[in-house]
Amino acid sequence: MVGLVTPAMNFLPGPAQTAAICLGIALPLLLLCYARIPGIRGAGSRFRIGCATAAALFAIACAVLPGERRIDDVAGGILLLATAMLLVYVFWGLLAWGFTLTLLTTLAQAGRPLTEEQWAAAYTQGGDIGKFARNRLKLLLGSGMVAVTGDTIAATSSGMAIARLARLVRLATGLR
């Protein structure tokens, strides 16, 4: 067609979207830094403060970055940052509050095979979680992280590796 000029489509992220991508990548690093601040207690508080920091830095970036502010760029940046926060939350929640992973690390910390009752008692510090623990045991058995021999349960080599990795990440993020 003669006379029609079609603007070239640009697939590169705008300034706000670039800032959001960078902040999304930096969010786990923020959480690591906040783990070293003794005044910030609790995994939930640490995560909320990290997200609030990322959101505030995004707002500042939108205000100070040079160039024209486009609503689609800012809206896309908000969506990208929100997506990054949700993704980090999934991993953060698993590390901070993951029951199955906590059961596995409890078994690994025992350093020896335990009966189901000993394992439940170690996890609950003397309580009985019976049915729920057995449900989690089925998941760990199905994934190959633990093995049952007779009436004892022991972490497999892959289970021990995952438990050590989880402890390392928890230590690094202050989740202990």
Q: pLDDT average, as an integer?
A: 85
Structural class of the helix and strand makeup? Answer: mainly alpha
Determine Rg (CA atoms, Å): 23 Å
Distance between the termini: 66 Å
What's the number of helices? 7
Note the quaternary state here.
Answer: single chain
Report the sheet with the most strands, covering strand number, pairing sense and barrel closure: 2 strands, antiparallel
**Beta strand count:** 2
Helix content: 55-70%
Give an account of the 3D structure.
This protein is mostly helical. It has two domains: 15-96, no CATH class; 99-173, Arc Repressor Mutant, subunit A, CATH 1.10.10. Helices cover 69% and strands 5% of the residues. It is built from seven helices and two strands. It has helices spanning 15-35, 43-64, 71-97, 99-110, 116-124, 130-143, 157-173; strands at 146-149, 152-155. It has a two-stranded antiparallel ribbon with strand order 1-2. Helix 1 (15-35) runs parallel beside helix 3 (71-97). The chain is elongated and about 80 Å long.
Give a brief description:
The chain is mainly alpha-helical and 176 residues long.
Layout of strands and helices, then pairs:
Layout lengths: L14 H21 L7 H22 L6 H27 L1 H12 L5 H9 L5 H14 L2 E4 L2 E4 L1 H17 L3
Antiparallel strand pairs: 1-2
Helix pairs in contact: 1-2, 1-3, 2-3, 4-5, 4-6, 4-7
Keyword list:
single chain, 176 residues, mainly alpha, Arc Repressor Mutant, subunit A, 2 domains, two-stranded antiparallel ribbon, elongated
